[in-house]
Amino acid sequence: MALIIALVCGGFPETEHITNKDIAMVSLCVMMCFSLCNMKLAGLNPKHYSKDITKAFFCCMVLGLGVTVLISFFFEGDIRHGWILEAAVPSAVSVIPFTALLLGNMKSAIVSSTVIYFAALLVTPLVTLIFLGEAIDPMTLLEYIALLIIIPLIVSRFMRRLSIPPAAGTIVINLSFAVLVVAIAGSNNYVFFGEPVLLVSLLIAAVLRTFGVGICLNALLKKKGEAREDRVPEILFATHKNTGMAGALAVALIGDAAAIPAAVCMTVDIVWLIYISKFMFPAPKLKEEQPASSAA
Q1: Among residues 192, 198, 244, 239, which one has the least CA distance to residue 217?
Q2: C-alpha span between 122 and 194 (Å, rounded)
Q3: Can you name the residues that pair with 91 across neighbouring β-strands?
Q4: How far is 169 from 235, CA to CA, in rounded Å?
């Protein structure tokens, strides 16, 4: 519903002091706080999750990055540069709340996401320097780490004292994500009313980057016997990039045209998240209570 509203009506009305980007950041912070408030953080030592961190890093900074860079070579000019920025950014912070909603391994997602963001302080500037000739300021990434990971972690510890029911937290997370969709996809809906040939090529590329990679990776992990709760964050790390960051960096470093791949990817990501929540990782059905045998 939020996606339809975003495409038809656009984003939220902006003022001099409040923009759609600001609204998106607040909604994402709220999602993070409620995702973490019902979880104990004791024992989240990265040393205990080295295997999970390695897998997450490969999925995000090797597989996801490599496929996106490869896609960039099918485009030219600012559009190609936009794909490079999409490749260079880390996974979306919303990997954590979606791991919670999909009943995945939350501790693995939190530790891995935090490590990936700190690794991005080196990887992201390096990738942009190699392919664009201009390195991204690491301070920009530090701001994202503070606003979207560290502060929600601290706030969630106080929220735990309120004993918020998990069902209420899930409702807030879903509503916050709806606000995020309208703010980001809506403010970029002009992309879908522009050049049809370019739009179709961008959509095909974005679908291959998300659905193609995600479905193939999930099939491979299932064949290897990977547990469902572990597959959830790994699939998200491989397919769910921080398109909001990519779009913001594209506008700041290159221009509006370079943000078009991020806007298209963001819309496809929303459809992808709906798909995996309904078909790839649906909520487990509760087993019906079997009637007692008359013979017993």
Answers
A1: 239
A2: 36
A3: 241
A4: 23
One-letter amino acid at 278 equals: K
* pLDDT: which is higher, 121 or 75: 75
**289 pLDDT tier (thresholds 50, 70, 90):** very low
Q: Where are the alpha helices (DSSP H) in the chain?
A: 2-9, 20-36, 50-58, 65-72, 77-88, 95-101, 106-132, 138-145, 151-159, 166-187, 196-207, 213-223, 228-239, 243-253, 260-275
The 8-class DSSP code of residue 241 comes to B
Long-range pairs of 187-192 with CB within 8 A, sequence gap ≥ 24: 187/10, 187/11, 187/20, 187/21, 188/11, 188/247, 188/259, 188/260, 188/262, 188/263, 188/266, 188/267, 189/6, 189/7, 189/8, 189/10, 189/11, 191/260, 191/263, 191/264, 192/7, 192/267
Residue-wise pLDDT tens digits, 11-50: 889 888 888 878 888 887 888 788 777 666 666 677 788 9
Q: Which has the closest alpha carbon to 236: 62, 118, 94, 87?
A: 94
Spatial distance between the Cα atoms of 71 and 212, rounded to a whole number of angstroms: 12
Q: Which of 80, 92, 95 is nearest to 128 (CA)?
A: 80
> Could you tell me the pLDDT band of residue 211, with boundaries at 50, 70 and 90?
very high
Structure confidence at residue 166 (pLDDT): 78
Phi, psi torsion values for 16, nearest 5 degrees: -65, -30
Prediction pTM value: 0.78
Rounded CA-CA distance 98/89 in Å is: 19
- Separation of alpha carbons 260 and 192, rounded Å: 10
Condensed to tens digits (0 to 9), the pLDDT of residues 58-100 reads 999 999 999 999 999 999 988 999 999 999 988 988 898 889 8
Plot region of 283 (φ>0 → left; ψ -120 to 50 → alpha; else → beta): beta
